[in-house]
Amino acid sequence: MGGDSPHRALTASDAVSGQVLYTQVQFVAAYGGTAEWEAAERRYDTDGGLYTKNEFIEFYGGSTEWEAAATPPPPPGISSDC
Fold first, then answer.
1. Shortest CA distance to 50 belongs to which of 61, 58, 42?
2. Which residues pair with 43 in a beta bridge?
3. For 42, phi and psi rounded to 5 degrees?
4. For residue range 10-45, what is the model confidence (pLDDT) as tens digits?
5. Rama region for 2: left / alpha / beta (φ>0; ψ in -120 to 50; rest)
6. Which residues contact 7 (CB under 8 A, 6 or more apart)?
7. Which DSSP string do the residues of the chain spell out, in sequence order?
8. How is the chain split into domains, by residue range?
9. What's the whole-model pTM score?
C-alpha cells in the first residue's frame, strides 16, 4: 500500500494534501469494486492501534476480532451513511 495509486482508499490526511475523498459507495462507482478499499481499511484493536484486516488475521488467526473492531470516524465533511 501507499504511494499515490488512484485505486487506494483515501484518508483524512489526503484531504490536507488536496486529494479527493471518496465514501465507499463513491469509490465503487468510480472504480467498479472494493478490493483496494478493503485492503486499505483499518480498524481499531484493543491496543488502540489501527490495523488492516490482513494484519488482524495474521495476529489472531481469523477475522472474528476484525468483525468486532471499531472503525475510525469518517473524515470531516464526509457522511458515514453514504
1. 42
2. 51
3. -130, 145
4. 554 444 445 677 788 888 888 888 888 777 889 999
5. left
6. 31, 36
7. --TT-TTSPP-HHHHHTTPPP--HHHHHHHHS-SHHHHHH-EEE-TTS-EEEHHHHHHHHSSSHHHHHSPPPPPPTT--TT-
8. 1-40, 42-72
9. 0.56
